[in-house]
Amino acid sequence: MSSVPQELKDTSVASSKWLDAHYDPVANLYTFSSCIALSDLHGDGENKLVVGDLGTGLCNMKLKVYRGTGLLSESTLLDLPTGLVSFLMDLHEPRTPAIAVASGPFIYVYKNMRPYFKFTLPSLDINPLEQDVWCQAKEDMIDPMTLKEMLEGLRDKSEIPLSVRSLRFLMLEPHEMENFVHLHKELPIRRQTVITCIGTLKKNMADEDAVSCLVIGTENGDVYILDPEAFTILYKMSLPSTPTLMDVTGQFDVEFRITVACRNGNIYILRRDSPKPKYCIELSSHPVGLVRMGKNVVVGCTHETLHGYTQKGKKLWTAYLPAPVTTMALMDLPTRGFQAVLVGLANCEVHMYRDKNLIGTIKTPDVVTSICFGRYGREDGTLIMTTKGGGLIVKILKRTAVFDDRDSTPGPPIAQSIRLNVPKKTKLYVDQTLRERENAIAMHRAFQMDLSRLRLAAARAYVKALESSLTPMSASLTEPLKMNAVVQGLGPSFKLTLNIQNTAASRPVMNLAISFLYDESLYSMRTAFFKIPLLVPGLNYPIDTFVECLSDKGVSDIIKVFVLREGKSAPLLTAHINMPVSEGLALN
Amino acid sequence: MEVTVSMDPLFLAWSSCRRRRFQRCADICSTLLAESPYDQEPAATATAAHVSEAVWSLKTRALTEMVYIDEVEVEQEGIADMMLDESSIAQVARPGTSLRRPATSQAGAPTPAVRPMTQSGRPITGFVRPSTLSGRPETMEQAIRTPRTASTARPVSSASGRFVRLGTASMLTHPDGPFINLSRLNLAKYAKRPNLCKTLFEYIFHHENDVKTALDLAALATEHAQFKDWWWKVQLGKCYYRLGLLREAEKQFRSALAQQEFVDTHLYLAKVYQRLDQPITALTVFKQGLDHFPAEVTLLTGIARILEEMNNMSSATEYYREVLKQDNTHVEAIACIGSTHFYTDQPEIALRFYRRLLQMGVFNCQLYNNLGLCCFYAQQYDMSLSCLERALALVSGDEEQADVWYNLGHVAVGIGDLTLAYQCFKLSLAFNNNHGEAYNNLAVLELRKGHIEQAKAFLQTAASLSPHMYEPHYNYATLSDKVGDLQSSFTAAQKSEDAFPEHVDTQQILRSLRQHFSSL
């Protein structure tokens, strides 16, 4: 189907631990780590890859199943998937797991890749006033504009937020409202929240093939635990913010622990028997990935850092990453008792961390957006990654691969061993220093004398420039102005742009005028004198004017620009514009 | 005995021509031609016809020589050639293979922090050549906006610009019409007369600057010579080059080289490749030329120039040294080696080279300016200010004056006299309103005084005047960062990073800003 590009076969230590099983750069898979799972769908001992494909975000949302390197089946999803898990819902033989796809307020449960059940989140309370308003609209007691005004009033004041329908209505253009009201007024209002993350929790046994409950987090900050068979809500917990990432461990009937990263940048740890979070970790930046490793939680943050925390929220370590984190996943090899965190980075690398030690790096041809590690087909250590460009990468961990526990980042920085290119001091230099040493007094005197003369010359020239206001910035305290002029065009017409800026801290400048001085036999200007508006401090005022070159001899001259103050003959500042040669004639 | 016979006027004219008194030669020829006009009426005898032919030919030569400029040297790309370049294949060439994208991170290449850069991201050279005046701008707006004064502006196209301005006499009016009326010339007739048509061609090409007619004549003549005369092929190549038909020019030069190895032909061919933005091929051409003409100075200089433009300063210096071994009065080589030493922190050696130039009789503002700076940085303080003072006395234009004041400002900063520095930078701006560097340095001084608004305005101006400099952007970033305007700081730092990706301070400010933005 496709070959492995050459650049993947580099000889670095990390890549030699992996076999490149499959790479399809145009697999057309756009997904995130939350929507990807490995599961033995048919109970034949061979794990398939189930992917909730986000498509383009508007259409082409698909549920795809891969087997080996090929696509086994695909079915269309109605809405964007937000999470996908595989779980065992009953004890019937053969033990085939079901797939739950969360999208919008629903969970679609598939068995044998056929739709099996649809769970809908319980609807939320509706603002009674909103209900009233819509009732009135239904009976045509109010027109759409009044409806809009009333809803706007409700939106600003009431504590219970408006329903989606009302919000959508408020977004419409006036001419679309009539239709919208007509279409929707018969239906009852509902306020629904959406699912943001999904996870699984073993019901009462810790076995690999035990029945699991679904755990879902919703937009309005609730966490629900669902019964696997009846899909009733077993338990409800609430959080101060919207959960985005979730990790679940334990058993529902015994003891469990749900670690949730929320949109307010905090991580909450929920436990059985408490509907409120037990512990809270406040991060210094937003979490991007959350992985539990044994009893510790590893969080990747937008700060380009990776933090390790204990179950109780105590910080253990911080690792600094070379690039922003795109996704994270757990690499778990129970047969070898090996666990590591896989971190996808925006610089096309996937790093493997065990605690804070970097134990391996995988280079990828594109930025990885989702990672999944586990048993695929009959191979235990398979790493599946999808890329930003829609590619699919499958790598297999070599059975001989050994990971050293020591940190594989090099010890001292490389810059330390680079020798600086300091030029050697030449013999000439030594001779000159000798001369300096011997004639120090004479040299110093000569220099001081020259310096005094230079100061005098500079002061004279400076005073002359100030007196005739030659500088392009004015030195007066009342009108601190700055001007520079730009000429554009090839000729014979040129555009002059004067950029004038008031550099005072707070005071505006008024009553200014601009005048030009030029050779009238060479140039003509439409307006050689005009007033300029009030200058607000700190803003650049570009003022355009046009100059026509009258000569065809290929000569050019200087045009002087004066900024004048009303009632004063001396200009505030002057700019000299060296006009370019008019090229218009040479082209003809 | 008394000799009253005056010298034969034709011989006198020829002699004047050889002594480079072209006006006199042309005058004598004019009188001779007025007596027996060539081409007007059938001559009485064959000898008379030959004489008038010779006079005519001599006059064309004299007139050509008066305005002759070396075709090998003059090279200035016009705006149109630059912006509407269709011969470039890759928009984004690999670094190190194009003059457009010189490898900036090459080992040993000077960074903009040490050596000032031109607009194209190339360090300034020690010797101003037409093609080094300013680099290729990236946008059309920048191309037309760059300070286009009479001395530095780019022409619209190379066909119109400098050739018209310096290389020809056609812009000036003649009192009695042109010497040869090109439109009435029977080219086919002249093409059959090899002796006449070479001078005629040069007259048309250099004096009249009528490349199309010159091309017609050359084509006819080479056909008459049965394509065996390499000279005509070179001339055809020159015409094609002027017309912008670079691939045809290349073909002609290659064919001429196959017939006859000649230094000029190598130079022309390399010029074609430079225009095509193939510096590596140009280097090969030069090196092939060196196989036939070992240690030829012009070829060595050509190699050195290309290497310099490609930021390979160490190799360029080696070739310049090779040039100096052959010709120890080569001004360009001395100046370039001197500036390289100055910017690699060896001002005492640079001082030697510039002193050598002074001994050779170069006596101008730029040289004294460089000497002054070298003395200052080599700690020979007694000489430095007097050199700069002399430079100030020798200036020939406002821009030079601005540059000298700017350097004086640097010296003043070096000795800690900030008032003097302030005055110097302001004077520099008074003489050249578009001096971006002076604006930047003035802004730093203003900032030290605590005038934040003023510093901001100056930095913005500096950034708009010279977008290739990283300093104003970086300074603006630090200033905004201090004031608390993080968003402007970030955008300015990004611009600074574009101009100078390896700048560590910019990287640091960007890193701290990113961290700031991502924290909760």
What does this 3D model show about the protein?
Chain B: This is Tetratricopeptide repeat protein 8 isoform X1. The complex is a heterodimer of chains A (588) and B (520). Chain A is 15% helix and 41% strand. Chain A is mainly β. Among the domains of chain A are: 138 residues, 7 Propeller (Methylamine Dehydrogenase, Chain H), CATH 2.130.10.10; 57 residues, no CATH class; 41 residues; 107 residues, Immunoglobulins (Immunoglobulin-like). A four-stranded antiparallel beta sheet of chain A has the order 1-28-27-26, with no helix packed on it. In chain A, strands 2-3-4-5 form a four-stranded antiparallel beta sheet, with no helix packed on it. In chain A, 36% of the residues are buried. With 520 residues, chain B is mainly alpha-helical. Among the domains of chain B are: 59 residues; 64 residues, Serine Threonine Protein Phosphatase 5, Tetratricopeptide repeat (Alpha Horseshoe); 51 residues, no CATH class. Helix content of chain B is 64%, strand content 0%. Chain B contains 26 helices and no strands. About 6% of the residues of chain B have low confidence.
Task: Output the structural class of chain B.
Answer: mainly alpha
Q: What's the story with the biggest beta sheet of chain B?
A: none
How much of the sequence of chain B is in beta strands?
under 5%
CATH architecture designation of the domain at 397-460 in chain B: Alpha Horseshoe
**Major β-sheet annotation of chain A:** 4 strands, antiparallel
- CATH topology name of the domain at 397-460 in chain B, in short, is Serine Threonine Protein Phosphatase 5, Tetratricopeptide repeat
In order across it, which strands form the biggest sheet of chain A?
1-28-27-26
What value does the Rg of chain A take, in angstroms?
37 Å
Uncertain regions spanning at least 5 consecutive residues of chain B: 132-137, 146-153, 157-173
How many β strands of chain B by DSSP?
Answer: 0
Number of helices of chain A: 7
CATH superfamily of the domain at 10-23 and 288-411 in chain A: YVTN repeat-like/Quinoprotein amine dehydrogenase
CA-CA gap between termini of chain A: 60 Å
